[in-house]
Design brief:
mainly alpha; MetI-like fold
């Protein structure tokens, strides 16, 4: 019986030798991720390409004319109704993002720095409202802001008003309030994770060097938690632009957003090319706005230092 010499390559079965091509780490890595890549390509990239292709076509009653045209983009960018809806959507989305981050940061900060051994309990309590349906939460805000609100009931009971008022409902403010509550948890969690990564010894060092609580927060805690703030802002801003359920239920005529117009084009209006052009235009503008938001936050971060 022959024993393999020390340092010789391990024993291989006949025919099991792999080619140099298959031994390449790049090929092995691609083979590993290729199923996921193909899956993402089919479910994410392909639908976007279909929408982009439709945006350059024309709806001709029940058929689609595949002749290349930019008419849909001209309508999307120049027609006052769509232009106003787009700007209103961007305004609402940006306002909701700012309010949500501003409200979420103190909560995340309290849980991270003062939650102690009850951090998990605090996070659990924050997620409880999200066990219910999103539609149910929107309808709850419709009740609070609408006819059956506590304010209306109290004013009617005091004889101040004879009929319930909907002053807080069916406008942009109602949409902002509802969306801010709906996306609060999605802003708290990334900020909390970012704050958990802040080295507490750096905060203590800033205090030892003479910085007060506010100065150490602005120079240490806030800059180090900036990635969480950026993530929270983007997580809230991008989906809220495309929300059409909330504006439809609590926005009314003055709270309609661009997503409602897109939904109408793909629905009753049956003008898929125009709806696709509105979608692509919104997607491009939101991407630019998201990039600008990241640059602004990073600039503020550098100034804080």
């Amino acid at each position: 019986m022959t024993v393999a010499a020390e340092g010789s390559p391990p024993f291989r079965l006949a025919g099991s030798r792999r080619s140099p091509l298959l031994q390449s780490e790049a090929v092995q890595g691609f083979a590993l991720i290729s199923p996921t890549f193909v899956y993402a390509l089919i479910l994410l990239v392909l639908p976007i390409l279909v929408v982009i292709a439709h945006s350059f076509w024309t709806q001709n009653y029940l058929t689609i004319d595949h002749t290349f045209t930019l008419e849909n983009y001209r309508i999307a960018l120049t027609e006052p109704i769509y232009r106003d809806l787009l700007w209103r959507s961007l305004y609402i989305s940006l306002t909701v993002s700012l309010l949500t981050v501003a409200l979420a940061y103190p909560i995340a900060y309290f849980i991270s720095f003062h939650g102690g051994r009850h951090k998990s309990l605090w996070l659990f309590l924050i997620t409880i409202p999200f066990w219910t349906s999103y539609l149910l939460r929107v309808m709850s805000w419709k009740v609070i802001l609408g006819y059956n609100g506590v304010l209306n009931s109290g004013l009617m009971g005091l004889g101040v008003i004879d009929e319930p008022s909907t002053a807080l409902l069916y406008n942009s403010s109602a949409v902002i309030i509802t969306l801010t509550h709906a996306w609060a948890t999605f802003a708290i969690l990334p900020i909390f994770v970012s704050l958990e990564k802040v080295d507490r010894t750096l905060v203590e060092a800033a205090t030892d060097l003479g910085d007060g609580p506010l100065r150490s927060f602005l120079r240490v805690t806030l800059p180090l938690s900036a990635p969480g703030v950026i993530s929270a802002a983007l997580i809230v801003m991008i989906p809220t632009v495309g929300d059409y359920v909330t504006p439809k239920l609590v926005g009314g005529k003055d709270g309609v957003m661009i997503a409602n117009a897109i939904q109408a084009q793909f629905g009753k209006a049956s003008n898929w090319p125009l709806g696709a052009a509105l979608s692509v235009t919104t997607m491009i503008i939101v991407s630019l706005m998201a990039g600008a938001t990241v640059l602004v936050i990073r600039a503020l971060q550098r100034l804080a230092r």
